[in-house]
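Next comes this protein.

***
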Amino acid sequence: MNLCLRFVFLVRLSRNRTFSLINLPQGLVDYISVRNPLFTPFHAFSATIASKEVTRHAHRRPRNGKWEREIDTDIGLVALIFLSCLHLSAACNQENLSRARDVELVAYRAEMTSTKGFKVTDADRKSRVGIAAKTLDDLKRKTIEKFKLKQSPDEIFFQTQDGTLVENDEYFQTLHAQTLLVWVKKGETALTDAEMLYKTIREVNDEYLTAGEKVQEFFTEKMKSKVFKLAEVLRGIDGDKAKHSLKCDHPEWFEGLDTNAKTKEDYMFRRAQDRIRTYYYKSREELLKDASIPKQRLNDLVLELHNRLKLSKFNGCYFDRSDKKSLCDKGGEFTCQGRWDKEVCLYSPKHKINPYASREGRIVFQTWNLDHVVERSRSVLPEVGRALKEAERTITKGGGEAALDVKAIYSDLFTVGNLKFVHIVCHDKGAHSKKKAGPYLLY
């Protein structure tokens, strides 16, 4: 309730037969004065009209079988009070808004630096420790203590289960509580869960194909464990369970996950977000390393890209089968879109996977990739850097500066306009020499 409405409220609802503004409780005066500095002179002004008491005549009369109280108020004086308060409220408005923003900023900073619990493990997954931390540096320090490491905080890093490197505190603050993080030494990377599984599958196939002297080793305990893992991945899938979404209906699908997601769609939505976030932070870091790029223009571009991603919810819809923009069908089945230089997947039958059908399918799904047709690091980012530099010194015919084509940059980095979802076999990590990016300047 603003200042003027407070006074009208007090005038109209006082139970005394006469009421004067000068009789406001001192505690209320102090309370309002602290939050509205201009209230004090107004309260002094009210003392000058204290003699003009607001007279209220109350009488009772029957209406619909009940007695009711009617209040007659000196409308002229109330109007004077209301207009005076309205003037003061307008004067205080800007200051109050500024204070509100300060309060929101403090609350936001407090939220972003609140303690969250994480599960931390080593590259070999030999041990797992729960650690609560506020910042990335805090997590490094406590990890060194818990694992009794000889490294300094600058010599260890963290990556998520899908291999995303947590490079700065800004990205660290976006991680959900109970996220599993793998600590690695400087210059090293740990295999992701999907890579470990895929390596095991390949080891089984390679040794099986060499047969010969290997056939005698096939039934060793080591090989048995590999075969069991392979069988678990390739075992028959209950198609009926694929349609279930809730955790309570298909609990084994969620087994081993550190997530508070209640549905498969929610979990898959976040996994797509994670991949797009990774592209955003990697792109930003690579551009920031180029000291020749005008910093202000780069900061403006990075902010605009981030705002667009927030509006699109980091394109989490790509893996969410309930969304019309999903890359899968309504049942959750994804089909490989083929190598970057091919129109479709050339394998027969085409590579397909349904991560919604089983826990095994969800795990193997991590080996599939969102591949940039026009390469992000080799082509898109270098061209973005050139455009930022060129915009700094290019003047259009109208006398203005050339502008960046942010829409095209956003599309090439984060959307299916330049991304293909492919099986690992169809993911060509060589140079996509036929595809060139840009130009990203508008004249």
The radius of gyration is 33 Å. The first strand starts at residue 18 and ends at 19. The longest helix spans residues 75-112. DSSP finds 13 helices and 15 strands in the chain.
